[in-house]
Amino acid sequence: MERNAASSSTSPPGTVWRVALKNLWQGVRRTLKSRKARRLRVCETLSLGDRRFVAVIEFDHQEFLVGGSGNSLELLARLHEGKVLTEPFPAARAGGSLEMGETS
User: Which residue has the higher pLDDT, 71 or 35?
Assistant: First the structure.
Protein backbone atom coordinates (compact mmCIF):
# COMPACT_ATOMS: atom_id res chain seq x y z
CA MET A 1 0.00 0.00 0.00
CA GLU A 2 2.88 2.37 0.75
CA ARG A 3 4.27 1.75 -2.70
CA ASN A 4 1.03 2.88 -4.38
CA ALA A 5 0.89 6.05 -2.25
CA ALA A 6 4.48 6.98 -3.21
CA SER A 7 3.93 6.35 -6.92
CA SER A 8 0.71 8.35 -6.98
CA SER A 9 2.45 11.43 -5.47
CA THR A 10 5.11 11.59 -8.21
CA SER A 11 4.44 13.44 -11.44
CA PRO A 12 4.48 11.83 -14.85
CA PRO A 13 7.98 12.06 -16.41
CA GLY A 14 7.16 14.80 -18.95
CA THR A 15 5.32 17.07 -16.52
CA VAL A 16 8.45 18.30 -14.73
CA TRP A 17 10.05 19.33 -18.03
CA ARG A 18 6.87 21.02 -19.22
CA VAL A 19 6.65 23.07 -16.03
CA ALA A 20 10.34 23.99 -16.22
CA LEU A 21 10.05 25.07 -19.87
CA LYS A 22 6.90 27.06 -19.13
CA ASN A 23 8.66 28.91 -16.28
CA LEU A 24 11.69 29.55 -18.48
CA TRP A 25 9.54 30.91 -21.31
CA GLN A 26 7.66 33.22 -18.93
CA GLY A 27 10.98 34.53 -17.59
CA VAL A 28 12.24 35.22 -21.11
CA ARG A 29 9.01 37.03 -22.02
CA ARG A 30 9.24 39.21 -18.89
CA THR A 31 12.85 40.09 -19.67
CA LEU A 32 12.13 40.98 -23.29
CA LYS A 33 9.06 43.02 -22.36
CA SER A 34 10.86 45.09 -19.73
CA ARG A 35 13.71 46.12 -22.05
CA LYS A 36 13.28 49.43 -23.78
CA ALA A 37 15.02 50.24 -27.01
CA ARG A 38 17.97 52.49 -26.26
CA ARG A 39 18.24 55.70 -28.23
CA LEU A 40 21.64 56.79 -26.91
CA ARG A 41 24.85 54.79 -27.25
CA VAL A 42 28.56 55.52 -26.79
CA CYS A 43 30.20 53.94 -29.84
CA GLU A 44 33.82 54.73 -29.06
CA THR A 45 35.88 56.89 -26.71
CA LEU A 46 39.48 58.03 -26.70
CA SER A 47 41.17 59.43 -23.62
CA LEU A 48 43.41 62.44 -24.20
CA GLY A 49 44.75 62.66 -20.64
CA ASP A 50 44.05 65.28 -17.96
CA ARG A 51 40.37 64.22 -17.85
CA ARG A 52 39.89 65.09 -21.55
CA PHE A 53 38.34 62.78 -24.12
CA VAL A 54 36.88 62.49 -27.60
CA ALA A 55 33.86 60.24 -28.20
CA VAL A 56 31.53 59.10 -30.95
CA ILE A 57 27.95 59.14 -29.67
CA GLU A 58 24.99 57.60 -31.51
CA PHE A 59 21.53 59.06 -30.95
CA ASP A 60 18.52 57.91 -33.00
CA HIS A 61 20.77 56.42 -35.71
CA GLN A 62 22.81 59.64 -36.04
CA GLU A 63 26.45 59.86 -34.97
CA PHE A 64 28.14 62.83 -33.31
CA LEU A 65 31.78 63.50 -32.50
CA VAL A 66 32.06 65.18 -29.11
CA GLY A 67 34.95 66.35 -27.00
CA GLY A 68 34.92 66.84 -23.30
CA SER A 69 36.89 67.69 -20.21
CA GLY A 70 36.19 67.54 -16.52
CA ASN A 71 33.57 70.28 -16.63
CA SER A 72 32.53 70.76 -20.27
CA LEU A 73 31.25 68.93 -23.33
CA GLU A 74 31.43 70.28 -26.89
CA LEU A 75 29.94 69.04 -30.16
CA LEU A 76 32.80 68.82 -32.64
CA ALA A 77 31.02 67.41 -35.70
CA ARG A 78 28.00 65.47 -36.89
CA LEU A 79 29.04 62.21 -38.56
CA HIS A 80 27.45 59.88 -41.09
CA GLU A 81 29.05 56.47 -41.67
CA GLY A 82 32.39 57.80 -40.49
CA LYS A 83 32.23 60.92 -42.71
CA VAL A 84 31.83 64.47 -41.40
CA LEU A 85 28.49 66.03 -42.35
CA THR A 86 29.01 69.40 -40.69
CA GLU A 87 32.12 71.54 -40.64
CA PRO A 88 33.99 70.82 -37.41
CA PHE A 89 35.35 73.60 -35.22
CA PRO A 90 33.13 76.55 -36.17
CA ALA A 91 35.64 78.90 -34.48
CA ALA A 92 38.20 78.06 -37.18
CA ARG A 93 35.84 79.40 -39.87
CA ALA A 94 35.44 82.67 -37.97
CA GLY A 95 39.11 83.52 -38.45
CA GLY A 96 40.65 81.64 -35.53
CA SER A 97 43.60 79.36 -36.26
CA LEU A 98 43.91 75.86 -34.88
CA GLU A 99 47.25 74.97 -36.43
CA MET A 100 50.37 75.12 -34.32
CA GLY A 101 53.12 77.48 -35.37
CA GLU A 102 50.94 79.91 -37.35
CA THR A 103 51.32 83.56 -36.51
CA SER A 104 48.90 86.34 -37.28
Answer: 71
